[in-house]
Amino acid sequence: MSGITPYLTIADGRARDAVAFYQDAFGAELVETHDADDGKRLMHAHLRLNGGELMLSDDFPEFHGGQSSAAPGGARLHLSVDDADAVWNRAVAVGAEVTMPLADDQFWGDRYGHIRDPFGQSWSIGAPIRKG
């Protein structure tokens, strides 16, 4: 891995569901997973996504003084893709909520929009607009 690697904490014991969503919505490749000792939660998952890396786990409040470390919507993850509509439509079809419609009128020249996945994480999807 290089650069920054987002690490998401998924609330409510839904990390496995998040892995499946990211695979279905964004074509993520599962690199590895590690189960927690309780046999229920996911201690760690590593995904490859759009040329980058993403890691996530279920919430483990017992490791954080009894407090949840999940922060839904606390950050946005950006995917720069060749075909924003294809990725967008796939994500929405498997449960993403549109929070900013996909549109061509971005000042920097991308077709761009925001979604929220079923686990409270915000995503932006953008693709250069090809003219001519």
UniProtKB/TrEMBL annotation:
Residue ranges of domain VOC in the record: 3-128
InterPro entries registered for this protein in UniProt: Glyas_Bleomycin-R_OHBP_Dase, Glyas_Fos-R_dOase_dom, VOC_core
Signal sequence, start to end: none
CDD domains registered for this protein in UniProt: VOC_like
A Pfam family recorded for this sequence: Glyoxalase
Domain of life per record: Bacteria
Protein's name according to its UniProt entry: VOC family protein
PANTHER family linked: BNAUNNG04460D PROTEIN-RELATED, VOC DOMAIN-CONTAINING PROTEIN
